[in-house]
Specification:
The structure holds 3 protein chains of 3 kinds. By secondary structure, chain A is an alpha+beta fold. Chain A is built from 15 helices and 17 strands. In chain A, strands 1, 2, 7, 8, 11, 12, 13, 14 and 15 form a 9-stranded mixed β-sheet that branches. In chain A, strands 6-5-16 form a 3-stranded antiparallel β-sheet, with no helix packed on it. A two-stranded antiparallel ribbon of chain A has the order 4-17. In chain A, helix 7 packs across helix 8, helix 9 packs antiparallel against helix 10 and helix 12 packs across helix 14. Chain A is elongated, with a radius of gyration of 30 Å. Chain C folds into 2 domains: 296 residues, Alpha-Beta Complex (Amidase signature (AS) enzymes), CATH 3.90.1300.10; 74 residues, no CATH class. In chain C, helix 2 runs antiparallel to helix 3, helix 7 packs antiparallel against helix 16 and helix 10 crosses helix 12. By secondary structure, chain C is α/β, with parallel strands linked by helices. In chain C, a hairpin with a 2-residue loop joins strand 4 and strand 5. Chain C has an 11-stranded mixed β-sheet, with helices on both faces. In chain C, strands 4-5 form a two-stranded antiparallel ribbon. Chain C has 16 helices and 13 strands. Classes of the chains: A alpha+beta, B alpha+beta, C alpha/beta. Chains in contact: A-B, A-C, B-C. At the B-C interface, helix 1, helix 2, helix 3 and strand 3 of B face helix 10, helix 11, helix 12, helix 13 and helix 14 of C. Strand 3 of chain A pairs parallel with strand 1 of chain B. The structure holds magnesium ion and zinc ion. The site of magnesium ion has 3 residues of chain A, from loops.
């Protein structure tokens, strides 16, 4: 909140420039086999009420028993967010009535969450980075699902999600633009996926954001905020913030005031709207859940979990820059997914790091994107790509041939060296053969030979012709040397 | 502290209990009798006293992360007033 | 020979073992008895077929020499314990047709040990009450009647509550023993009102899994039976660790029956002066003095102690218990089970369902609980009450640390009253019934009520013993001394 105002991030209203202030509450589904307080499965896509225990359905006399893995996952996440881990936390009941809330309360953590303050460093596109404060992380139960369009007069309730563990990660209001908000969400998702504590699958609802948006004139106190509930894609987060900020600016510039409320983002209309059902002021009557004791553990427990943590994206990025000589930008791209980073490292090990990065980012990622598949499904293994790069380094193939080779390995597979051998893709280093081709081109292009003496840049044209004539297999260094001497270019 | 009729209605709504007009006044009287009775707690000095969270001091028992339940939708909806295809049916909810 | 249903549970057990009679015979005796006693309204549901099937299975086991500790013993189950395939109402309209697909931990333990189910026992709605007049299914009538000038009065007497059906059924010989629950005195007060024995074990001794919750941090199940020994036998089966209840301790269950005859020699019994409340009837005071004298005669040391925060327990209870209840009872919303009353929208459906499904006392407590937890009042009421709870518990800890082994108090401030006598507009008048018992729940301690005499009108009076956490054994030993000294209460002859 005290960060200096960045003029680039201000939104132009009709009269003034406005600063948008954003805080996010992100609900991340904990990766676990069973639910937070019951033994029912968390698996997605089951038949209605099939992944429901009598505890999840809040049958009379049913009691919650906590899943130790969910606790461990929350601690791991807290460690990944460089946050304070609270050795004693308390589960509270948040009381309200809703058909997909079977107990009539959600078990959550209110006053004493399992994780306290932390921070996330977020890299932006322009190379700048910001630090976003984490206020807290707490464990809570997910609600069930109500389907409203099956029937004109009734809603259908399915409790399969009811009781699945969520981590609610609350940020400080440290974000100042939709871009920052999207980058923060992206970074948080990366961290969670590295940790293996949330799969980050936004389509399945594993990650949802409540976005708090307010606007103010730079330097003024915080404005009244509106909470946009349950935004379920990174793109929509950006759109929702933009439209909500503009809505608020328009109201204020019109002489109106913002009323604090809960809103929903409608992607079809590209605007937010007030949520009718949440209109009435809530009184959640939080109190410690008497069915559960306080959650307590010691530092040794935390230390053991810390020991098992993987290298996180920030550390990995720093290492890639230091050890492989990568640019911060390339390193960022490579560490965005743990699988990509692992792939890259396997390719780069014992090879030129920059060359490996070029191949992975430009060729491999480009091709994967084109096909719309993830790194896990790549047909070219890190080992295969590494061999292709080796063949270039050894001078066996040229960079250009290597691209053809990559394409062959992508579609047909096989050991790159054997493919080169079998298809005669080897680079021609025999100067006799190259010389014959060069002589032939010189003989046919007397005019150009003359021009080349005045204009040495024409060398490139001769190189191209020679490569063409040799089917791209001529060693470019040899071609260059021969042409220079024959054309008399220094 | 005591409650007025408006508060009685507000609490009843929070608790999702319909209260008829002629029930409000008697309820108000009963609630105020209870509140008057508990009023004496206000006089106790509780500075430095920790609020009780669990009457038996012990570590919370935890479960292993294994799937031990589910696959019993029939049991889950067996007592429901209205169901279809193992869904619970409720009057339409407007969001 | 006495009728089979008039035996004590221990006598019945021994008779079955000796094959003096069969499980079927003892089940039949009870079925016949409860058919004749329907006017008492102790049973909400009789399950004679199930009883006979279970009895036959027990006879087969006994024949094979394979009998469990409770093999063939017919019991009544308070209708707060969920029983698989048998409607469980909690005494409420809102659960009128609810048929659980699961068995409570307590009842499952009893069936595991061979007990036979006679049916489901009436209770105050959701265990909220001290007279069994809040049940949606009618009042329970005590088998006891007042004597006026040597003549039995026709006036109906309450059995106490909330376990009124349990206490009445035990006192009227409609079962050998019954399950019960105690949140503020709901085992001990009805036991005292009916001349029976009831123990509320230490919080965490018995699993709460499958028992309809009233106030989670206070609820504990226990038995009501006709003798201290019978209670010890039943608690031994009901108690035990349960991974499904986080608040249930992983302690082995001692041989409670073994403790019954231990005596009190060398024990120090505390008499808390704060229980000598203003206006205490002389006969209650005398009963209390008698109790102390009996224990002294049996070798115990009697010591006056102070539990200074005693008088705060009841008001604090009437914040904590309704607060928890308001949340625990939110699940009765007409969606997944139980009553549904339609409305114009979902909110109206909730409100209509809960208005029609809950009785007056339950609604009252839900509303008080909702109020004390609501924004702006939480700290002043709930947090403060929980702090006072800490003080109450500390009082007991200090007494025990100073060498007291158990504490003797009256169980109730009076004998049972007549049905409708306390139906005044002020609910607090009824709440005062629990003034001696509620401290024990607030501190999570074990407490036992044991009959110790009759009042001037011939109604039973009980004494209460309060123990150290998880020391129910001392309570059984001490209660047995009182039981013996007072002479076994002669239960009423059937007038029904
Ligand atoms: Mg939130
Ligand atoms: Zn949340």
């Amino acid at each position: 909140m005290t960060a200096p105002v960045n003029p680039k991030k201000l939104i132009k209203g009709a009269e003034h420039d406005w600063e948008v202030v954003i805080g996010m509450e992100i609900h991340a589904q904990v990766t676990s086999r069973s639910k937070l307080f019951s033994g029912a499965s968390t698996e997605f896509g089951a038949e209605p009420n099939d992944h429901v225990s009598l505890v999840d359905a809040a049958m009379p006399g049913m009691l919650p028993v906590i899943n130790e893995e969910c606790v461990a996952q929350a601690v791991r996440t807290g460690l990944g967010l460089k946050a304070r881990i609270n050795h004693r936390s308390v589960f509270d009941r948040k009381n309200y009535f809703y058909p997909d809330l079977p107990q009539g309360y959600q078990i959550s953590q209110y006053k004493d969450p399992i994780v306290g303050e932390g921070e996330v460093v977020v890299d932006l596109l322009d190379g700048e980075s910001i630090t976003v404060g984490i206020e807290r992380l707490h464990l809570e139960q997910d609600a069930g699902k109500s389907l409203h369009d099956q029937n004109p007069t009734q809603s259908f309730v399915d409790l399969n999600r009811s009781g699945v563990a969520l981590m609610e990660i609350v940020s400080q209001p440290d974000l100042r633009s939709s871009e920052e908000a999207r980058a923060y969400m992206t970074k948080l998702r990366t961290i969670l996926r590295y940790l293996g504590t949330c799969d980050g699958d936004m389509e399945k609802g594993s990650l949802r954001a409540d976005v708090n948006v307010s606007v103010r004139r730079p330097g003024q106190p915080l404005g009244t905020r509106c909470e946009i509930k349950n935004v379920n894609s990174i793109r929509f987060i950006g759109q929702a913030i933009e439209s909500e900020a503009r809505r608020q600016i328009a109201i204020i510039e019109d002489g109106g005031t913002i009323s604090q409320e809960t809103r929903l983002y409608d992607p079809a209309k590209g605007e937010t709207r007030s949520m009718r059902s949440k209109e009435e002021a809530h009184d959640y009557r939080y109190f410690p859940d008497p069915d559960l004791l306080p959650l307590e553990f010691d530092q040794a427990y935390v230390d053991a979990l810390a020991e098992g943590l993987p290298e996180l994206p920030d550390a990995k990025k720093a290492r890639f820059v230091a050890d492989f000589g990568l640019s911060a930008y390339d390193a960022n791209v490579l560490v965005a997914e743990r699988a990509s980073a692992d792939y890259y490292e396997a390719v780069a090990r014992g090879r030129d790091g920059k060359a490996a990065a070029n191949w992975v980012i430009n060729e491999l990622f480009g091709r994967l994107n084109k096909e719309g598949i993830g790194i896990d499904a790549t047909p070219v293994s890190a080992d295969q790509l590494g061999r292709i790069i080796d063949l270039i380094g050894e001078g066996v193939i040229s960079g250009k041939i290597a691209k053809d080779l990559f394409e062959i390995v992508w579609t047909e597979g096989g050991d790159p060296r054997a493919v080169v051998e079998a298809r005669g893709m080897k680079q021609v280093t025999d100067t006799g053969a190259i010389e014959a081709a060069v002589d032939d081109i010189i003989a046919k292009n007397h005019d150009k030979v003359q021009q080349a003496k005045e204009k040495p840049t024409l060398l490139g044209w001769f190189v191209g012709q020679t490569m063409k004539a040799t089917g791209g297999k001529a060693n470019p260094a040899a071609v260059n040397a021969l042409l220079k001497s024959k054309l008399g270019i220094e | 502290m005591s409650v007025d009729e408006k508060t009685v209605r507000r609490i009843a709504h929070l608790a999702r209990i319909a209260v008829a007009e002629d029930e409000v006044a008697p309820l108000q009287g009963e609630l105020n009798a209870i509140l008057a009775f508990v009023e004496q707690l206000g006089a106790v000095d509780v500075t430095g006293v920790e609020a009780m969270t669990s009457v038996t001091p012990m570590a919370m028992k935890k479960r292993k992360d294994v799937v031990t339940d589910g696959g019993r939708a029939v049991d889950v909806v067996a007592n429901a007033p209205e169901t279809e295809d193992h869904y619970f049916l409720v009057p339409k909810v407007v969001e | 020979m006495t009728d089979l249903n008039e035996l004590s549970l221990a006598e019945a057990r021994d008779g079955l073992k000796a094959k003096t009679f069969s499980a079927r015979e003892i089940a039949q005796a009870h079925i016949a008895a409860l058919e004749k006693a329907r006017v008492l309204n102790a049973y909400l549901l009789e399950t004679p077929d199930r009883a006979l099937t279970m009895a036959d299975a027990s006879d087969a086991k006994i024949a094979k020499g394979d009998a469990g500790p409770l093999e063939g013993l017919p019991l009544g189950i308070k209708d707060l314990f969920c029983t698989e395939g048998v409607v469980t109402t909690a005494g409420s309209r809102i659960l009128e047709t609810f048929e659980p697909h699961y068995e409570s931990a307590v009842s499952a333990n009893l069936w595991r040990d061979g007990a036979v189910m006679l049916g489901k026992l009436n209770l105050d709605e959701f265990a909220m009450g001290s007279s069994n007049e809040t049940s949606a299914y009618g009042d329970v009538i005590s088998p006891w009647r007042r004597q006026e000038n040597g003549v039995l009065s026709d006036a109906k007497i309450v059995p106490g509550g909330s376990s009124g059906g349990s206490a009445a059924a035990v006192a009227a010989h409609l079962c050998l023993g019954a399950t019960a629950t105690d949140t503020g005195g709901s085992i001990r007060q009805p036991a005292a009102f009916t001349g029976t024995v009831g123990i509320k074990p230490t919080y965490g001794r018995v699993s709460r899994w499958g028992t309809v919750a009233f106030a989670s941090s206070l609820d504990q199940a226990g038995p009501i039976a006709r003798t201290v020994r019978d209670c010890a036998i039943l608690l031994g089966s009901m108690a035990g660790p349960d991974a499904r209840d986080t608040t249930c301790v992983d302690l082995p269950v001692p041989d409670f029956e073994d403790a019954v005859s231990r005596g009190v020699k060398g024990l120090t019994i505390g008499i808390p002066k704060e229980y000598r409340v203003e206006g205490m009837p002389a006969e209650i005071q005398k009963l209390w003095d008698d109790g102390a004298a009996w224990l002294k005669d049996a070798g115990a040391t009697i010591r006056e102690i102070s539990l200074p925060h005693t008088k705060l327990a009841l008001p604090a209870y009437y914040i904590v218990a309704p607060a928890e209840a308001s949340s625990n009872l939110a699940r009765y919303d007409g969606v997944r089970y139980g009553l549904r009353v339609p409305g114009k929208d979902i909110a109206a459906m909730y409100e209509n369902t809960r208005a029609a499904g809950f009785g007056r006392e339950v609604k009252r407590r839900i509303m008080i609980g909702t109020y004390v937890l609501s924004a702006g009042y939480y700290d002043a009421y709930y947090v403060r009450a929980q702090k006072i709870r800490t003080l109450i518990k500390r009082d007991f800890e200090e007494a025990y640390a100073a060498g007291v082994d158990a504490i003797l108090t009256p169980a109730t401030p009076s004998a049972a009253f007549g049905i409708g006598e306390k139906a005044s507009a002020d609910p607090v008048e009824m709440y005062l019934n629990d003034v001696f018992t509620v401290t024990v729940n607030m501190a999570g301690l074990p407490g036992i009520a044991v009959p110790a005499g009759l009042d001037g009108q011939g109604l039973p009076l009980g004494l209460q013993l309060i123990g150290r956490p998880f020391d129910e054994e001392t309570l059984f030993a001490t209660a047995e001394v009182i039981e013996r000294a007072a002479g076994r209460t002669v239960l009423p002859k059937a007038w029904w």
